[in-house]
Write a structure and sequence with these properties.
Layout: E1 11-16, E2 19-25, H1 30-43, E3 50-53, E4 56-59, E5 63-68, E6 84-85, H2 91-103, E7 111-117, E8 124-127, E9 140-144, E10 149-155, H3 157-160, E11 163-165, E12 175-181
Parallel strand pairs: 5-6
Antiparallel strand pairs: 1-2, 2-10, 3-4, 5-7, 7-12, 8-11, 9-10, 9-12
């Protein structure tokens, strides 16, 4: 076992100041990942919400779905409060979450925000996953099913670094990413 992981990371990056990133290539078997991608695409209640960004209303440039444990604080970003679904509503999501827990037993999470990018025109602008309901020392797990890779951002990475999913004209296929998070029960 590698520092709390049953699967050693393909690459590790020490970003300084308590920020780190672990990259796992081929986290799932390709056939398994393809099946999960299809199931999530077809079974989840995807929505493309209207956001409020710098006082302007705009449609989010990707579809989303939010699943969390019961009793957590309200999750809200850019003026949008997603519907909270239960893990039990989506058996395939529970299977994926269990696989992540098995491979990364030290990681704790109680929610997942899924984003569906239907083609290269869908995107996520530069941002940090630093909402106030998240634990400060957050471990954030991103499972990217189209490429079958997993990235773990730990410690202060969420506070100090931003990320994006840019538009890509040459990307024609479906992409779904799952951001597993640990949300505290107290608001800050």
């Amino acid at each position: 076992m590698f520092a709390g992981f049953t699967v050693p990371p393909t690459k590790q990056f020490d970003l300084g100041n308590g920020s780190d990133l672990l990259y796992f290539e081929n986290f799932l078997e390709r056939k398994e990942a393809s099946g999960y991608l299809e199931s999530l695409n077809n079974e989840l209640p995807w929505i493309r919400p209207t956001l409020s960004v710098y006082g302007q209303k705009c449609e989010q440039p990707r579809e989303t779905c939010y699943v969390a444990d019961e009793g957590l604080p309200t999750y809200k970003y850019s003026g949008y409060q997603p519907i909270v679904y239960k893990w039990e509503d989506f058996p395939v999501l529970k299977i994926i979450a269990n696989a992540v827990h098995s491979a990364l037993p030290a990681a704790k999470f109680n929610s997942v925000l899924l984003n569906r990018y239907t083609n290269g025109n869908d995107y996520a602008a530069w941002h940090a996953d630093d909402e106030k309901v998240h634990r400060v020392l957050l471990t954030c797990l991103k499972l990217i099913l189209h490429a079958n890779h997993k990235v773990q951002r730990g410690s202060y990475t969420q506070r100090d670094w931003e990320h994006s999913v840019p538009k890509r004209k040459r990307v024609n296929g479906l992409r779904i990413n799952l951001t597993f998070r640990y949300i505290t029960s107290e608001q800050r």
